Hints:
Layout: E1 3-7, H1 14-24, E2 34-38, H2 41-48, E3 55-58, H3 75-80, E4 83-88, H4 91-96, H5 101-113, E5 117-122, H6 126-130, H7 134-148, E6 157-161, H8 175-193, E7 201-206, H9 214-218, E8 225-228, H10 235-247
Parallel strand pairs: 1-2, 1-8, 2-3, 3-4, 4-5, 5-6, 6-7, 7-8
Helix pairs in contact: 1-2, 5-7, 7-8
Bound molecules: 2-phosphoglycolic acid.
Residues 7, 162, 167-168, 206-209, 227-231 line the site of 2-phosphoglycolic acid (PGA).
Amino acid sequence: xxxxxxxxxxxxxxxxxxxxxxxxxxxxxxxxxxxxxxxxxxxxxxxxxxxxxxxxxxxxxxxxxxxxxxxxxxxxxxxxxxxxxxxxxxxxxxxxxxxxxxxxxxxxxxxxxxxxxxxxxxxxxxxxxxxxxxxxxxxxxxxxxxxxxxxxxxxxxxxxxxxxxxxxxxxxxxxxxxxxxxxxxxxxxxxxxxxxxxxxxxxxxxxxxxxxxxxxxxxxxxxxxxxxxxxxxxxxxxxxxxxxxxxx
Length: 248
Ligand code: PGA
């Protein structure tokens, strides 16, 4: 089943989040794709009992399981709040909060220990792209994490290719670029973890997606779904994307 994931970033009050779920949670389309929503932490508990077929996720997670870590939230606490997924190393956290590949590996391991599915975000920035370093950047981000995990997947793994230059820019990558990135990531996972790991891997594209761009991305055989930012905030624009996705 295809995945349509909504990253709300630092938007929405609890009331706004509830209203969005009120508009989306009853849609008959939900049985035909896996919808995952990453709300702000403040709204998670309020949504848990209204999520229906929508899976909840967190936008970040601590690498430790418990302890004196003021301000952090553990994977077990996220599970307690109803989460099944968490984003790891989104480019905005790499930029503003010091996340890097080494921390990402520790966060992924923590999520697996709690039985949650990590959505690990990779992708090159505009400078790396301009220098022709896009594939090398993706390869390094994936290899560093898989090496730190000793090439062993401790659960399901989602990797989202989100080129930094495409996020929030209104200019998405082309479907072919997303397909090439997906092929490269699969190749790295196969090489580091073995072919059996591919059965536990899903690949997303994210960056300035909208209903108009869904068919092109979903026509790429290695792209399993989309991670959507701004177009996910309005329930009708999100439902329009879902409708196109299940028809694709
Ligand atoms: P965007 O954000 O769809 O607004 O470009 C995507 C993301 O940051 O996950």
